[in-house]
Each structure stands twice: as structure tokens, then as C-alpha cells.
Write a structure and sequence with these properties.
3-stranded antiparallel β-sheet; alpha+beta
Length: 76
């Protein structure tokens, strides 16, 4: 059915995304786009545990904050 097809598509996108991610500076990043700048940072916890690509925000001096799980990741 439609729900099954949507779930399969979601899982395939997550797999492709996970293969594209690199871990750098305490977060995940996607490869550079046409602007030659890497896309990110993304939350490591949300991707590793939930398989979700969630863009982080600056959470304070030296930290990224995830708006979804509220996790803090230290810049490395």
C-alpha cells in the first residue's frame, strides 16, 4: 500500500544520506554543494539512534544544539 511505499522510500533516503555523511568537528556533515561549502552540521544522536537528519543550531559558545533531541555537541 501507500504507507508501505512511503516507508520504503524514507528508509532508502536515510541509507543514502548515511552513506554520504562524514563526521567532523563533533557533528555530521553532507558533502559540499555547488557553493563548495559542506552542508551541516547535523545531530549525531538523532542520526545514530533515530535515523533522522536534523540540522543543529549554535547552542552557545563552543556547542551545537539539536532542536529535536535538545542534545548539545561540543565543537571539535
Amino acid at each position: 500500500g501507500r504507507d508501505k511505499d512511503a516507508k520504503i522510500e524514507e528508509l532508502e533516503k536515510a541509507r543514502v544520506t548515511r552513506e554520504q555523511l562524514t563526521y567532523k568537528g563533533g557533528a555530521y556533515w553532507l558533502p559540499a554543494d555547488a557553493s563548495q561549502r559542506p552542508d551541516g552540521p547535523y545531530c549525531t544522536r538523532c542520526m545514530d539512534v533515530d535515523g533522522k537528519l536534523v540540522r543543529t543550531t549554535v547552542g552557545g559558545q563552543g556547542f551545537y544544539r539539536c532542536p529535536h533531541c535538545k542534545g548539545l555537541m561540543e565543537y571539535a
